[in-house]
Design a protein that fits this description.
single chain; mainly alpha; Serine Threonine Protein Phosphatase 5, Tetratricopeptide repeat; 19 helices; globular
Length: 371
């Protein structure tokens, strides 16, 4: 046989050998994927996991396979495995809210709390409406991590939302109490002697979220009668009273300051209430103290700036608001307050710029479904 024919034969054999394994591989993948699905449906978890792993070696871009591998790992408490599987899903589908939430839940269980906080938050921002069964547990764990991160207000927003949905058990209620008492702890880290106070505080939050304000007031009054000198109890009750009984709220908030001299949120609440009443002069001392105690807080500088503008100290007020903007460039409140202050000073272009930025940020960070 000539050298030319040998080359042609080699090429032909080469093409045959590359085409045939590809079709065989596809057929093998289809067969194993079907077996994995059948094992999963039959609740044969270990067998299903092994089959999904085999199928994914043949087709690493199979998103559904990684998803089921992750859910099986979560159900079996194999949290490192489920974390790794859901991480692959987020790469394959970066806009998929359920995958980010499940990744965060797995990271919570592996005690990677900072990553869990970021990824659970990502899931919420993308919108979890299509997966309500995942959304509930994701919101709960996000609320836990927000409290641990000392973001108590956002944590309580989530607990109130869960209560409005009719969710909740004793564990959830106590966890809400931890956030309400401003303790940067996970439930398992709460000392035994604090379990009752956390539950009582959480009961008030839960009744408030479930739109039972009369019962919530009784809950908070019981909490106050049993723990009158514990930090944050008067603050919690005062914050509740601000909604319907603001005249009774201010003495409670002042009592909190007496118990906790460095309490910044109580001062901010009092200053905000006086601002709402149109009494900025009464509010200013509380706002100044709050800004001194928390110099890196966007909230304290924003309220102080607004009050200074209200009392016609425009230059000082703008300095405070500009500092707040610098501390949190993506916060909307300093922007709209600056727009108003600049307008008062006749700085029309600056005012227009801040209004545009306010609207942009508001649109950027609105929740899915909001108008």
């Amino acid at each position: 046989m000539s050298a030319f024919l040998l080359v042609l034969l080699a090429v032909a054999l080469g093409q045959s050998s590359t085409d045939h394994p590809a079709s065989t591989s596809a057929a093998a993948f289809d067969r194993i994927a079907q077996q994995a699905e059948e094992a999963r449906q039959a609740n044969q978890a270990d067998n299903a996991v092994a089959l999904y792993r085999r199928a994914l070696r043949l087709k690493p871009g199979w998103k559904e396979g990684w998803w089921y591998l992750g859910t099986l790992g979560y159900e079996q408490n194999h949290y490192a495995d489920c974390r790794d599987a859901f991480r692959r899903v987020t790469v394959l589908e970066p806009k998929g809210a359920p995958a980010w939430s499940m990744l965060g839940l797995c990271e919570f269980e592996t005690k990677q709390y900072d990553l869990a906080l970021a990824h659970l938050n990502q899931g919420q921002q993308l919108g979890m409406g299509a997966a309500p069964e995942i959304d509930e547990i994701a919101k709960y764990h996000l609320a836990l991590l927000l409290a641990r991160d000392e973001n108590y207000e956002k944590s309580l927003e989530l607990f109130l939302e869960l209560a409005r949905r009719g969710k909740g058990d004793q564990t959830m209620i106590a966890a809400a109490g931890i956030a309400a008492l401003r303790k940067p702890l996970l439930p398992q880290e709460l000392p035994q002697e604090d379990h009752e106070i956390a539950y009582l505080a959480g009961k008030g939050i839960w009744d408030l979220g479930a739109r039972r304000p009369a019962q919530a007031q009784k809950d908070f009054e019981l909490l106050l009668s049993k723990y009158p000198d514990v930090p944050n109890v008067h603050y919690l009750f005062g914050s509740f009273l601000l909604q319907e009984q603001p005249d009774k709220a201010i003495p409670e908030l002042e009592r909190e300051i007496a118990i906790s001299p460095a309490h910044v949120p109580a001062r901010v609440q009092i200053a905000s209430e006086y601002l709402r009443r149109g009494e900025p002069v009464n509010a200013l001392p509380y706002a100044r103290e709050a800004a001194t105690l928390a110099p890196d807080s966007v909230v304290t500088h924003t309220i102080l700036g607004r009050l200074l503008v209200e009392t016609e100290e425009l230059d000082a007020g703008v300095r405070e608001l500009e500092l707040a903007r610098k501390l949190a460039p993506e916060s909307t409140q300093p922007r709209i307050a600056l727009a108003s202050a600049y307008a008062k000073m006749g700085r029309a272009e600056d005012a227009a710029r801040e209004r545009r930025e306010f609207l942009r940020l508001k649109q950027l960070y609105k929740r899915p479904g909001e108008q």
